[in-house]
Each structure stands twice: as structure tokens, then as C-alpha cells.
Structure to design on (426 residues):
């Protein structure tokens, strides 16, 4: 497998694995060795937890189908060999959990899959993907059983953190994307639809009442534990993998490089401010060091900040060869400081867009707006040009303003047209 072709996800989206009773049998000892090695790796790679848990169900009588699925996991690991959990310094020490389930996901016995993950300091510290021991009759029941298991793990983690002098003063938040489960955990009255749920799972209610845990609703697309319950589409898988804190070595190096630049610029600014204060000189204009995300309205400040960053990265943004040499680092740096809407728009193009192209696109979209509006308003008729040429020039500037995304009022347009006429015609 050392020369295999890497893949971008460990399992094909939507793929269901069964016992494959009619399939060609495979060496069970060799298959167990592969699965055992992968289970060892899940200690630092939660992104393969689901597929390894799934494949481990067929270790007794594996077939070629199961072996091919295991080989795909190895191919995925070949392409992500430098990936691992990344914990950011200085982040919150508050323990946060995510609970989810895949209702009746097993095609053999129709049992559901429970999963949970706990985050601490921007990275996952505990995770699980396990088939439930009972057959559930509704999605609410499946989610409730998963949440109860997650709550038990939360109690254990809180005690461990207490021993490490990291006491959790507030209830541990557990995010769940099922509203009925949240209501059931807080409602002390047993009604007809929940009486069949085993009494031991109602332990969750006592923990909620005691203020140990607190179930909170979250959107399905933000449910991090979803990556541990079923095969996801590539875009969703990569998003949740990043939220887990599983990043590549190059990405973490880029984040360290940006953090060092921020620290250096902040130190230089503070020293300059201190020296000016001691000498009685006027304090220079502050360099924008604190995080600034481009939202379309703050382009001048954002561009100035990015110029400082790119200079520190030894990139001259007027030299094409420099952009090409450090393209990945520059692209990551620019994307890191875009608002969510712009990141969604340009993030999908990062494989085909260079840093230089992205920089020029943003400058054209946001940096030229005020210039175009001022040019539009200050347009004046030139005697040397004919009326037709004058109209064509005026329309060209107007088209540029519209293309830049500016929305101008009708009064503004009338004012611009009147101001462009020669004085004699007024």
C-alpha cells in the first residue's frame, strides 16, 4: 500500500456495509491485524473512528468486500499521513460535548449507532462511535440513548478534570440536533411515547436537574458528532474534520507562522507607542493587529493588515514569482481573514485559485468601489469628445460601478447625470 493512490475520505458517502454472506471469504487473521492497527490509530485520528468501528463488526468472517473497504481507509491515511489533533494555546478550558445517532443504520439488525465527542481547547479530547445494544423504535429514542451515554462520559471527564485542577464550574453543554430529546430530558412526566425507554437512560434527567449537564439544540450541519455516525459527503466530512481539530501539519505550521507574525507586529507596535510616549512625540497611527475579517465594508483596514502579514512572509504582492513560491501559505493567510460569506464563496475555489488571483479579485470587488463612485460623480463632459463618445464613456463607468456590486439610489444617478453636463446647458 506504500505506492497506492490516496483518497480524500475513508469511506464512500452513503455506502452501507453488510455481512456479505455470498461474497468471497478473506483471511480473517490478516483482516484482524489490519483492523487492530487501525483501532490503535483512532487514539489520535477521530476522523476514522466511524469506519473502523463499522469494519470491526465483521472480523469473524470477513469477505473481499470488507477487505476493500479496509484498504480504502489505508489509502485515505496515505493521503493524510501528516494529519493529527491540534490544540490551540489560550483557548477556553470549558468542556463541551456533542451527541448524535444514526437511526436504524445497521442493515443487519436495524440497531442505531451512538456517537459523542467532547471538545476542550479547540480540539477533541474524547470520542466514541458504537452500535447501540437495543433496537430503538424512534429517532427520539435513539438520540436519547446516545445523549444518556454522552452524559455518563461527561460525568467521568468532569471528575478527571477536577483531579487535574481544571474544575468545571458551569454545567457541561451537550449539543444535540433533536428537539424532542432535549424536551424529554427536561420533562419529568413520563408519557405514552417514552415509557418503553429503559429506566437506566433516565439517568440523564437527574443529571440535567442537578446542573451537571445541559442539553442544547444545534443545527445538523454544525453537529460535530455526525462524522462518527455515518458516511458523509466530502464537503461535510472535511468541514467536520476541521471542527474536530484534525488538521494537517502544513496547516498547523501556517497557523504558527501567522501567530508569530501577529506577536511580532503587536510587540513592535507596543514598543513604538511606549517610545513615543516617553519622548513626548505624537503617537503614530496604530497598525491593525487584532483580527480583522473582510466583510466588504472594511477593505482599506483589511488590506493594510494583509500587506503587513505578506511583508512578514517575505512576499511582495507586486512580484508574481513570489506569489507562486509561497502560494499555499499566502492563500491560507488571506482566507483566514474573510467573513463567512466570502470564505464560502472563495473557499470552494481554493484548489483552482492562486493567492495572487484572490488578492486581485478582492481588490477589484471592494477596493475599487469608492474610487469608481467618486469617478462616476466627478465625471464631466470634455469638449474634445463628441456627444456619442461622452455617452459611451459615461455608460462604461456606470457599468463598472454596477459590476463592483454597489447599489446606488435613483437620486444618486440623477445627480451624477446632471453634474456631468457642461455648465452652459444648466
Amino acid at each position: 500500500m506504500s505506492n497506492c493512490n490516496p483518497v480524500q475520505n475513508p469511506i464512500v458517502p452513503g455506502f452501507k456495509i453488510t455481512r456479505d454472506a455470498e461474497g468471497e471469504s478473506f483471511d480473517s487473521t490478516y483482516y484482524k491485524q489490519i483492523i487492530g492497527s487501525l483501532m490503535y490509530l483512532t487514539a489520535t485520528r477521530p476522523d476514522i473512528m466511524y469506519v473502523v468501528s463499522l469494519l470491526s463488526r465483521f472480523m469473524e468472517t470477513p469477505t473481499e468486500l470488507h477487505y476493500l473497504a479496509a484498504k480504502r481507509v489505508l489509502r485515505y491515511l496515505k493521503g493524510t499521513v501528516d494529519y493529527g489533533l491540534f490544540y490551540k494555546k489560550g483557548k477556553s478550558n470549558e468542556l463541551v460535548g456533542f451527541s448524535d445517532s444514526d437511526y436504524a443504520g445497521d442493515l443487519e439488525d436495524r440497531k442505531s449507532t451512538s456517537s459523542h465527542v467532547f471538545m476542550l481547547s479547540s480540539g477533541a479530547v474524547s470520542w466514541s462511535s458504537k452500535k447501540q445494544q437495543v433496537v430503538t423504535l424512534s429517532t427520539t429514542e435513539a438520540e436519547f440513548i446516545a445523549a444518556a451515554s454522552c452524559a455518563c462520559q461527561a460525568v467521568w471527564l468532569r471528575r478527571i478534570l477536577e483531579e487535574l485542577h481544571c474544575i468545571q464550574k458551569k454545567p457541561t453543554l451537550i449539543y444535540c440536533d433533536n428537539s424532542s430529546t432535549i424536551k424529554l430530558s427536561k420533562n419529568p412526566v413520563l408519557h405514552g411515547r417514552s415509557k418503553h425507554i429503559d429506566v437506566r437512560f433516565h439517568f440523564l434527567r437527574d443529571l440535567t436537574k442537578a446542573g451537571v449537564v445541559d442539553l442544547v439544540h444545534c443545527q445538523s450541519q454544525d453537529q460535530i458528532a455526525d462524522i462518527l455516525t455515518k458516511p458523509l459527503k466530502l464537503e461535510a466530512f472535511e468541514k467536520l474534520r476541521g471542527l474536530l481539530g484534525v488538521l494537517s501539519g502544513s496547516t498547523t505550521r501556517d497557523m504558527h507562522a501567522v501567530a508569530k507574525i501577529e506577536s511580532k507586529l503587536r510587540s513592535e507596535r507596543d514598543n513604538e507607542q511606549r517610545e513615543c510616549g516617553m519622548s513626548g512625540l505624537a503617537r503614530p497611527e496604530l497598525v491593525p493587529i487584532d483580527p480583522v475579517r473582510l466583510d466588504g465594508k472594511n477593505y482599506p483596514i483589511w488590506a493594510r493588515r494583509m500587506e503587513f502579514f505578506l511583508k512578514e512572509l517575505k512576499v511582495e504582492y507586486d512580484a508574481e514569482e513570489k506569489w507562486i513560491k509561497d502560494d499555499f501559505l499566502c492563500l491560507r493567510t488571506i482566507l483566514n481573514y474573510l467573513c463567512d460569506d466570502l470564505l464560502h464563496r472563495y473557499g470552494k475555489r481554493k484548489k483552482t485559485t492562486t493567492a495572487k488571483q484572490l488578492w486581485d479579485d478582492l481588490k477589484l470587488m471592494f477596493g475599487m468601489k469608492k474610487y469608481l463612485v467618486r469617478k462616476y460623480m466627478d465625471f464631466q463632459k470634455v469638449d474634445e469628445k463628441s456627444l456619442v463618445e461622452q455617452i459611451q464613456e459615461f455608460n462604461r463607468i456606470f457599468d463598472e460601478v454596477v459590476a463592483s456590486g454597489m447599489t446606488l439610489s435613483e437620486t444618486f444617478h440623477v445627480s451624477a447625470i446632471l453634474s456631468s453636463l457642461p455648465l452652459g446647458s444648466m
